[in-house]
């Protein structure tokens, strides 16, 4: 089965302000707010998404708006301090991607395969 390309929906940035506000609210970790996602768990989410839906990493990079160098550096995780990966643009972009996916439903990205649009839903590989 060939890999699937996804496209960024026109409404992709509509939830960005809400996302930024949510990120600002969770900064004071001592006050009981949810702690930030670790870079390692975010890498796992990305890998699971790409594998489950058989999506190309190139189209995923295009949707989240990062270049291959930044993406590969983030995904390899070769940092002296594990939390240093939060400074990579892939971290924020991927976190927003999963925020958008959660808020707008799992059917928000329309895959392309051989130039033909699939229905609005993903069909995970069997």
Taking the sheet with the most strands, its summary is: 3 strands, antiparallel
**Beta-strand share of residues:** 5-15%
Number of strands: 3
Weakly predicted, low-confidence segments: 111-126
What level of helicity do the residues show? 40-55%
Number of helices: 5
How do you describe this structure in short?
This protein has helices spanning 16-25, 39-52, 57-64, 68-76, 89-104; strands spanning 5-6, 111-113, 116-117. It is mostly helical and 126 residues long. The chain has a three-stranded antiparallel beta sheet with strand order 1-2-3.
Please explain how this structure is put together.
The longest helix has 16 residues, at 89-104. Strand 2 (111-113) and strand 3 (116-117) form a beta hairpin. Strands 1-2-3 form a three-stranded antiparallel beta sheet. 45% of the residues lie in helices and 6% in strands. It is globular. The protein has 126 residues and is mostly helical.
Spell out the key features of this protein.
disordered C terminus; mainly alpha; 5 helices
């Amino acid at each position: 089965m060939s890999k699937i390309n996804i496209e960024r929906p026109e409404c992709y940035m509509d939830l960005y302000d809400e996302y930024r506000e949510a990120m600002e609210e969770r900064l004071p970790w001592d006050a009981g707010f949810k702690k930030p996602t670790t870079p390692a768990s975010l890498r796992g989410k990305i890998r699971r998404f790409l594998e489950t839906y058989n999506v190309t990493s190139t189209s995923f990079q295009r949707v989240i708006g990062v270049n291959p160098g930044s993406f590969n550096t983030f995904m390899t995780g070769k940092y002296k301090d594990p939390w240093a990966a939060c400074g990579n643009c892939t971290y924020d972009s991927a976190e927003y991607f999963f925020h958008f996916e959660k808020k707008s439903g799992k059917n928000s990205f329309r895959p392309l395969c051989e130039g033909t649009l699939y229905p609005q839903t993903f069909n995970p590989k069997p």
